Amino acid sequence: MEYTCILCPRGCHLTAEWATDEKGEKTVKVSGNFCPRGIKYATEEMTMPMRTVTTSLYVDGGEEKMVSAKTADTVPKEKIAMVLSQARSVRATAPLAVGDVLVENIAGTGVNLVATRKVRKA
Ligand code: SF4
User: Fold this and answer.
1) Engineered SS bond to 115: which of 49, 55, 99, 100, CB 3.0-4.6 Å?
2) Which pLDDT belongs to residue 43?
3) How many A from CA of 82 to the centre of ligand 1?
């Protein structure tokens, strides 16, 4: 598989493929990386891709009708739809500050959904 590493502006073009090590265990072989972070990135993309999810929630009692939000850490790519679905079902209440937890452990990921914008009370 081919990937572009997104961990820094250098944007290394990575090639990752399954290989077997000397113990006969399956492993991911990565090339094209300028630093070790690229190996971790490509290996994760091959085995369990993770993403930060951004979305918006409705706000009750605020000067704004919506607040932007994101997961406080990356979540498995396969859980993105569940994260967005749960976020759609939740309403936040003003006032809100950046970093306020809007949903704890969203979609059972162990990651909180947090506000990325301040919303004053109306
Ligand atoms: S492999 Fe290292 S240098 Fe290359 S883009 Fe990723 S983080 Fe940057």
Assistant:
1) 100
2) 95
3) 30
pTM: 0.79
Instruction: State both tokens at 30.
Output: 């990565």
Structure tokens at 12: 């290394």
**Same structural domain, 66 and 24:** no
Instruction: State the distance from the centre of ligand 1 to the C-alpha of 78, rounded, in angstroms.
Output: 24
How many domains are contained in the chain? 2
**Is the minimum distance from the CB of 8 to ligand 1 under 6 angstroms?**
yes
Q: Are residues 59 and 36 in the same domain?
A: no
Give the residue-averaged pLDDT of 95-117: 98
What pLDDT is stored for residue 87 in this prediction?
Answer: 96
The SS3 assignment for 27 reads: strand
Distance CA 116, CA 30 (A): 35
pLDDT > 70 in the chain, percent:
100
